């Protein structure tokens, strides 16, 4: 084929192309060119990676609730093994004041008692004798007062010397003091002179931790049938790792599950060579599971670093090996990577990823997680 034929064919092709372009432009019903394949769309043309578009209606359907992140005041520092115990001055032994025989017990081990509550009734020969002495002293007091009154009248009438009246008055006063002293002793032991018994009572409010007493048993002044641990006062003794000595100090906040709070009261300065730890002591409030002698874990918190926030632990989840939260955005939610600083009770502490005041999803995270993974 010669060059002239080639030129002719080229001209025909060009005319066909130009005509086709003119027809597409002029005809609005002409089919649009095929869309670009998804993999050819630049990544920068979509929404920010991690955003989920969720309208308000669907938010309600998914049960999504929000809460603002707040600046954290405390951040977990360490969790150490510890034992719950009563403070040194909060355990009281109730001794049998006088020898005797147990007539009746009114409480058992584990009971909670109030201050002054009766614990047991003891029959005692000494109390019976004190009751008889008090009766005799009262009788003498009656005679002494009558005699003093009679002699005082005679003295005023000038029949006898005033010295005799004064002497009678002094005897009456002395007898009255004897009666008062015997009555005071009986009151101190909660004694009942007529029945020859006395009652053991609780010196403090608390819980009976020891009750080594039974009806019919003998007791004396050297035994302590009851031991009471003070109510609402507990202490935790923990083992502080060597690396934390110097970082933990009195006043720091501590927690015990299920969210019982207290404060550090003392930190030991001597390292145990066997455990390489020092002692740490804290006071805690009473609560469920707080029983003397129980082993537990003590969470110690210190001042939170700058920028840390606290929010409900339910807001934090994992997705694809990442620790994330869902932060509310305009028209949806953003999947935000965060750095966890541990849990402070029911609150999670985040060291980065969320700013104070941002609205974070605290309910419905599972639904948003499933939505994010299905994209």
TrEMBL record:
InterPro entries: BSH_CzcB-like, CzcB_C, MFP_Cation_Efflux, RND_pump_MFP
Annotated Pfam families: BSH_CzcB, CzcB_C
Top-level taxon: Bacteria
GO terms of molecular function: transition metal ion binding; transmembrane transporter activity
Keyword Zinc carried by entry: no
Every CzcB-like C-terminal circularly permuted SH3-like domain range: 309-369
Record SUPFAM superfamilies: HlyD-like secretion proteins
Keyword terms of this UniProt record: Membrane, Transmembrane, Transmembrane helix, Transport
GO biological process, one term: copper ion export
Protein family according to the UniProt entry: Belongs to the membrane fusion protein (MFP) (TC 8.A.1) family.
Protein name as annotated: Probable Co/Zn/Cd efflux system membrane fusion protein
Species this protein is from: Sphingobium indicum BiD32
């Amino acid at each position: 084929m010669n060059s002239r034929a080639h030129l002719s064919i080229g001209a025909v092709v060009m005319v066909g192309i130009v005509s086709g372009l003119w027809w597409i432009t002029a005809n609005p019903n002409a089919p649009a060119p095929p869309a670009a394949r998804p993999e050819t769309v630049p990544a920068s043309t979509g929404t920010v990676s991690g955003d989920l578009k969720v309208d308000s209606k669907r938010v309600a359907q998914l049960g999504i609730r929000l809460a603002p992140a707040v600046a954290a005041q405390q951040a977990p520092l360490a969790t150490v093994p510890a034992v719950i115990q009563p403070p040194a001055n909060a355990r009281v032994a109730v001794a049998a004041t006088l020898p005797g025989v147990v007539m009746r017990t009114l409480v058992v081990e584990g009971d909670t008692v109030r201050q002054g509550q009766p614990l047991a009734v003891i029959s005692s020969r000494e109390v019976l004798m004190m009751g008889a002495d008090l009766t005799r002293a009262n009788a003498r007091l009656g005679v002494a007062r009558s005699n003093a009154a009679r002699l005082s009248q005679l003295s005023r009438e000038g029949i006898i010397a005033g010295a005799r009246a004064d002497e009678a008055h002094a005897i009456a006063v002395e007898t009255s003091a004897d009666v008062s002293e015997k009555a005071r002793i009986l009151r101190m032991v909660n004694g009942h002179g007529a029945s020859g018994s006395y009652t053991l009572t609780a010196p403090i409010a608390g819980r009976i931790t020891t009750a080594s007493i039974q009806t019919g048993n003998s007791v004396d002044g050297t035994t302590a049938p009851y031991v009471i641990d003070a109510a609402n006062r507990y202490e935790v003794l923990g083992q502080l790792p060597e690396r934390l000595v110097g970082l933990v100090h009195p006043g720091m906040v501590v927690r015990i599950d299920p969210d019982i709070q207290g404060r550090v009261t003392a930190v030991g300065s001597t390292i145990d060579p066997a455990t390489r730890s020092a002692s740490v002591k804290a006071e805690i409030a009473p609560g469920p599971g707080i029983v003397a002698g129980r082993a537990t874990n003590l969470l110690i918190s210190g001042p939170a670093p700058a920028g840390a926030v606290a929010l409900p632990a339910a807001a934090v989840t994992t997705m694809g090996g990442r620790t994330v939260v869902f932060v509310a955005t305009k028209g949806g939610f953003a999947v935000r990577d965060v750095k966890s600083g541990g849990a402070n009770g029911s609150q999670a502490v985040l060291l980065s990823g969320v700013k104070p005041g941002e609205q974070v999803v605290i309910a419905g995270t599972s639904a948003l997680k499933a939505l994010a993974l299905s994209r």
